[in-house]
Design a protein that fits this description.
single chain, alpha/beta, six-stranded mixed β-sheet, 35 helices, DNA-binding, DNA-directed DNA polymerase, EC 2.7.7.7, DNA replication
Length: 884
DNA sequence: AGCAATCA
DNA sequence: TGATTGCT
């Protein structure tokens, strides 16, 4: 049996060294991390190089120690520890916690003393001991079983000192004489005086002759050199004091049992989660690599028939009959990873070939066929047994097509959702990207030939992956957002996608035919006015016609040429009748191509409905997005486009479309977040907020607010929500930037709480590197420190906008989850169809309308309690158009 | 501010 | 990929 090996680390010394040895380094949130980084890399290096059986890190507990009783000025010349280092001590402690490494500190004693005491005890108990520090004083501890590792220039480079190495570094010196050396030399860094004029050379010579400080003074007369003798005589007390100060107390009251320092290796999930939080990317890679190879850390066994973490040797069993399935699944008593084997890359094509079910130590591929059907695994899929998936919404969608309805109560967790909450800026990511980011592991390529193995392999990794994500989510206080909002919402969204929205194809085609006629007519008119035909859809050709041929002024340019955007064309409209026709053409063409043709393409033949996809893990703010088709941008502003909504009908004849939207949700959230009294007051009195803003900003009574004033105030309110810039507002209102600036200044004067909030949130973003929403959804803003004005300003506006937009997203998502549950509880037939950021669209039988209205309004208005009331407007009608 | 779709 | 337009 190999002997026990104890590694003792001088935490303070290493952190101090690391801080000054490494360039500045910060986490995403701006916290300095260079010292912790060095500390951690050193720890990991030690673990792999020394392979300790026992391990501890010692810290100084208090500034005042027993040494100060002896010499008040001890360490008196030390500079104040820099703030950037002070901040890192708690991080170092949490690092040790994450790595499960014991920490020791004792009142009145320094880390040295703890180390000396433990080293001595351990050596007596037959341990090999390694002491790690940056402080040469520790060399006094060296003996045949205690070696000292001193950090070299960097931090991971170590110089190994045994007795021989000490004698080499200080010619002829024994480790025990280190204190005598220091007694004579002193140590300016600790304000230990020593004997002035005695340096290392002289001290070593003296000690070679007389052994100790005591020996020197006993034989003072024999010392060569009168001046030296005089100095020694004069500073006798200093010499003895210095020796005492340098002497490590090997009898400190350390009430720690050596057994309790036994080191079993870190918990990989905790360690990785913590390193991820610190943004130690290279360490995340490194440690996951080490853990998958290091035989001392807990690993799945590599026995025959059992999976190892490595792809090549990965083994899994194929299950094809009910009996084997039951046996396999009943043997799991831990969270199980599940990967569905879709026959098609699009989950809306809900064909399922099989599924992988695996934990780190056992993996199966379940092949569906005659002897085992999906319905056989249904009880397990809907049970409360803990199961981990990647993209639950797609599973819930596909399984529903096979009569298996997953609910939030079914014991599922979702790696994709968890990963999104931790890094929303990455958008919709693949499983392989999460693996790469969280574990530093490359996933093998997904190939047809190894499909089943790939699924089993990845499934086996899902549970630990989820564990580490969940740990960080808890640390960032997003557990409620995950458990009570995003996770249950996935099931709600799956249901909405499954339901779809009925589209009256004939109406839509007729609408399109009307458009075609108008487009043809207007195209001819434009060609006549231009005197030539050209591609109206090409901004380049259009620009040539307008600005070169017709000689209209080019008001704005783009990177590639003239700008022909709507705001430019609107200014040119009075100058030539072709311009308005082009604007009309643009509108009609948009309606035709995007909405009529686009919608017709995605109506499902079988259902006559469109089944949009809601992306729950895409936006940086927490909003949903919608695609194929995007039902979140169906026209409404202009009547001609709005009519398109007439093609969206209820499923059944006697049903209606019901819509409920939050009134001024973002400004209400701003009122709450900022605590601005005027804004809060306005909403408590349910005023028309734009009129009220106009009255304040233009200093007139509300009755005298003109429509222009209200329009301008409305733009200011928008600007405020988006994080105002005078440039942006001037563009919006088509006014000089100076005037826009005055509007904003006026606004902030009337709403000082808003001003304070905006300043504070930007300050917070700078300090922490991120901003948060009401439910602690987080968004990192690394550009907030950019030297580039544009990028920095953008980050600042994002800092102002994200808490507002993101909190609104939190709010409506929470409402959706509750509404879904309430509708199920009440066994209603009504269905939620769409979410459009601040509104929800339903279809329901006419007779359910009153109950649905109450239920929806209640859950939306009371989703959260803010300092202003939440107001919901509702409407209904025979089509979406009529629900206004 | 945040998205998606279309076209060249 | 960029320009444009649709939505909140």
């Amino acid at each position: 049996m190999p002997s026990s090996k104890l590694v003792l680390i001088d935490g303070n010394s290493i952190l101090y060294r690391a801080f000054f040895a490494l360039p500045p380094l910060t986490a995403r949130d701006g916290t300095p991390t260079n010292a912790v980084y060095g500390f951690t890399t050193m720890l990991l290096r030690l673990l792999s190089d020394e392979n300790p059986t026992h391990l501890a890190v010692a810290f100084d507990k208090s500034k005042v120690t027993f040494r100060h009783a002896d010499f008040a000025a001890y360490k008196g010349t030390r500079q104040e520890t820099p703030d950037e280092l002070v901040q890192q001590f708690p991080l170092a402690r949490r690092t040790l916690e994450a790595l499960s490494i014991p920490m020791i500190e004792i009142d009145q004693y320094e880390a040295d003393d703890v180390i000396g005491t433990l080293a001595k005890r351990a050596a007596e108990a037959g341990f090999e001991v390694r002491v790690v520090s940056g402080d040469k004083d520790l060399l006094q501890l060296v003996d045949s079983h205690v070696h000292v590792l001193l950090t070299r220039k960097g931090i991971t480079e170590m110089e190994h000192f045994d007795e021989q190495a000490v004698a080499q570094r200080y010619p002829g010196l024994k480790p025990a004489q280190v204190i005598d050396l220091k007694g004579l030399m002193g140590d300016p860094s600790d304000n230990i005086p020593g004997v002035p004029g005695v340096g290392e050379k002289t001290a070593l010579k003296l000690l070679a002759s007389f052994g100790t400080v005591e020996g020197v003074y006993e034989h003072l007369k024999e010392v060569q050199g009168q001046k030296l003798r005089e100095r020694l005589e004069q500073h006798r007390d200093d010499a003895f004091l210095s020796k005492r100060l340098a002497t490590i107390a090997c009898d400190a009251p350390v009430e720690v049992d050596l057994d309790s320092l036994r080191y079993e290796g870190p918990d990989p999930a905790r360690a990785l989660a913590w390193f991820r939080e610190l943004d130690f990317r290279s360490l995340v890679d490194k440690i996951s690599e080490e853990m998958s190879h290091d035989s001392t850390s807990p690993q799945p066994s590599a026995e025959p028939g059992r999976p190892s973490t490595a792809w090549d040797g990965f083994a899994y069993d194929v299950i094809e009959d009910v009996q084997a399935w039951r046996e396999a699944v009943s043997a799991f008593n831990e969270p199980v990873g599940v990967m569905m084997d879709f026959a098609h890359p699009d989950y809306h094509v809900a064909e399922i070939r099989g599924m992988a079910v695996a934990a780190p130590k056992r993996a199966y591929y379940i092949r569906f066929g005659e002897r085992l059907e999906l319905s056989d695994v249904r009880p397990w899929l809907v049970s409360e047994r803990p199961k981990v998936a990647f993209d639950l919404k797609s599973m819930a969608f596909a399984l529903d097509a096979h009569g298996i309805g997953l609910t939030p109560e079914c014991g599922w967790q979702d790696v994709k959702l968890a990963a999104y909450l931790l890094n929303p800026q990455d958008g919709d990511v693949e499983l392989s990207e999460v693996f790469a980011r969280e574990r530093g592991q490359e996933l093998p390529p997904r190939e047809d030939a190894t499909r089943e193995k790939w699924l089993a392999y990845t499934a086996s990794h899902l549970p630990p992956l989820f564990e580490s994500l969940a740990y960080t989510i808890r640390m960032q206080e997003m557990e409620r957002l995950y458990q009570e909002v995003e996770l249950p919402l996935a099931f709600v969204l799956a249901k909405m996608e499954i339901t779809g929205f009925y589209v009256n194809r004939e109406k839509l085609q007729a609408f399109g035919e009307g458009l075609t006629e108008r487009i043809e007519r207007i195209t001819q008119e434009i060609y006549e006015l231009a005197g030539t035909s050209f591609n109206l859809n090409s901004p380049k050709q259009l620009g040539e016609i307008l600005f070169d041929k017709l000689g209209l002024p080019a008001l704005k340019k783009t990177k590639t040429g003239y700008s022909t955007s709507a705001d430019v064309l609107e200014k040119l409209a009075p100058m030539h009748e072709i311009v308005q026709k082009i604007l009309d053409y643009r509108m009609l063409a948009k309606l035709q191509s995007t909405y009529v043709e686009g919608l017709l393409k995605v109506i499902r033949r079988e259902t006559g409905r469109v089944h949009t996809r809601f992306h729950q893990t895409l936006t940086a703010t927490g909003r949903l997005s919608s695609s194929e088709p995007n039902l979140q941008n169906i026209p409404i502003r202009l009547e001609e486009g709005r009519r398109l909504r007439q093609v969206f009908e209820p499923t059944y004849k006697d049903w209606v479309i019901f819509a409920a939207d939050y009134s001024q949700i973002e400004l209400r959230i701003l009122a709450h977040l900022s605590g601005d009294e005027a804004l809060i007051d306005a909403f408590r009195h349910d005023m028309d907020i734009h009129t009220r803003t106009a009255a304040d900003v233009f200093e007139v009574p509300p009755e005298q607010v003109t429509s222009l004033m209200r329009r301008q105030a409305k733009a200011v309110n928008f600007g405020i929500v988006y994080g105002i810039s005078d440039f942006g507002l001037s563009q919006n209102l088509n006014i000089p930037q100076k005037e826009a600036k005055r509007f904003i200044e006026n606004y902030f004067e009337k709403f000082p709480g808003v001003k304070r909030y905006m300043d504070e949130i930007v300050r917070q973003a700078r300090e922490r590197g991120y901003v948060t929403t009401l439910m602690n959804r987080r968004r990192y803003l690394p550009d907030i420190h950019s030297r580039n004005y544009q990028m920095r300003s953008f980050a600042e506006r994002t800092a102002m906008n994200t808490p507002i937009q993101g909190s609104a997203a939190d709010l409506i998502k929470l409402a959706m989850v509750r509404i879904d549950r309430a509708m199920r509880d009440a066994q209603m037939d009504a269905r939620m169809l769409l979410q459009v950021h601040d509104e929800l669209i339903f279809e329901c039988p006419k007779d359910e309308l009153p109950a649905l209205e109450v239920l929806v309004r209640d859950n939306m208005e009371n989703a959260m309690t803010l300092s202003v009331p939440l107001k919901v407007d509702t409407a209904h009608g025979p089509t979406w158009y009529d629900a206004k």
